[in-house]
């Protein structure tokens, strides 16, 4: 992924959460042409994901000293550090808010001091249960979890700082990310979970009837969106990052079973309380204002998932 085209060079770049799934791929794309610093507490990230040539600072984005030190002289900040599990946010709402909302606000204050551009990872979770699909950025925001509320808070602060303080900021609302280095977990990582089950020969467990639909976007495309956001003049906005296409979860299970050459049975289990039925990004704004459009089709992206 180091060959992704971009116009960022000679910059001091900070990637929070840069040892994790998406952050490490952003660091990969930029390290050859920039001075890249990664801030990560390694609670879920892996130092092996940090590219050679980047500086790893092991620290907590919620710690003022750790964060301010990593931010020193930054020109561009890609803020990926977050609590990303919806279920964990239900169990630990205060921790989730501290990491996702409070730390983002503090980081924005640091960015004001350094006069740094900020691109943050927001989420489609800000929309809650969609009233209609595809979902545009002006769709009502009614999060259904502490995770979603914390992301919406950060999303709003980022856009407000552009308006109040003329700080160049962009929020990117990721839909269902997948690709290399992703761990299993909630629906954002359902591909990894299905792959692990298929490779182990265990039943591939589909919550509910499998008719739920999701918009899966490959990490390579997410990196491209971040690089566009880091150079665009269309700041102070939130943009959906998705493909605009969907797949049913039961069809996804079949695709992965075939790709893994697995005999695992596909088993329907109880649905998850509050599960969103359909999700699909309206990508018009990202295409027209960021010049971003996803290019990796699901069929091409699945073989990049470890094990396939």
Can you describe what's shown?
With about 300 residues, the protein is of the alpha/beta class. The chain has a domain at about 10-180 and about 215-245 and about 280-295: NAD(P)-binding Rossmann-like Domain (Rossmann fold, 3-Layer(aba) Sandwich), CATH 3.40.50. It is about 35% helix and about 20% strand. It contains 10 helices and 13 strands. The strands form 4 sheets. A 7-stranded parallel sheet has the order 3-2-1-4-5-6-11, sandwiched between helices. The longest helix has 22 residues, at about 95-115. The radius of gyration is 18 Å and the shape is globular. The two termini are about 20 Å apart. The mean pLDDT is about 95.
Which properties best describe this structure?
single chain, 308 residues, alpha/beta, Rossmann fold, seven-stranded parallel β-sheet
Helix content: 25-40%
| Structural class by secondary-structure content | alpha/beta
Q: What's the β-strand tally?
A: 13
In terms of per-residue confidence, which ranges show pLDDT below 50 for 5 or more consecutive residues?
A: none
Sheet with most strands: strand arrangement: 3-2-1-4-5-6-11
Shape designation: globular
Mean pLDDT comes to 95
Estimated share of beta-strand residues: 15-25%
């Amino acid at each position: 992924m180091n060959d992704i085209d971009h116009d960022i060079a000679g910059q001091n770049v900070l990637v929070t959460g840069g040892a994790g799934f998406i952050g490490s791929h952003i660091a990969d794309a930029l390290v050859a042409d920039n001075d890249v610093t990664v801030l990560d507490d390694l609670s879920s990230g892996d130092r092996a994901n940090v590219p050679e040539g980047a500086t790893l600072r092991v620290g907590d984005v919620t710690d003022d000293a750790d964060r301010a030190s990593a931010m020193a002289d930054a020109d561009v900040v890609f803020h990926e550090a977050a609590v990303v599990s919806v279920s964990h946010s239900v169990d630990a709402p205060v921790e989730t808010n501290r990491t996702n909302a409070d730390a983002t606000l503090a980081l924005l204050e640091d960015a004001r001091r350094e006069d740094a551009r900020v691109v943050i990872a927001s989420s489609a979770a800000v929309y809650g249960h969609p009233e209609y699909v595809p979902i545009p950025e002006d769709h009502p925001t009614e999060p259904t979890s502490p995770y979603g509320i914390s992301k919406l808070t950060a999303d709003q602060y980022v856009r407000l700082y552009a308006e109040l303080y003329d700080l160049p900021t962009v929020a990117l609302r990721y839909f269902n990310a997948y690709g290399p280095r992703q761990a299993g977990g909630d629906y954002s990582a359902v591909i990894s979970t299905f792959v692990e089950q298929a490779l182990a020969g265990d039943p591939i467990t589909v919550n509910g009837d499998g008719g739920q639909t999701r918009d899966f976007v490959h990490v390579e495309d997410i990196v491209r969106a971040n690089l566009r956001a880091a150079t665009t003049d269309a700041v102070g906005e939130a943009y959906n990052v998705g493909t605009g296409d969907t797949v049913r979860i039961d069809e996804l299970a079949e695709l992965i079973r075939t790709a893994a050459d697995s005999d695992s049975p596909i088993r329907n289990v109880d649905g998850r309380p509050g599960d969103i039925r359909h999700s699909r990004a309206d990508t018009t704004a990202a295409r027209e204002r960021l010049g971003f459009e996803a290019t990796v089709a699901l069929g091409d992206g699945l073989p990049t998932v470890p094990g396939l």
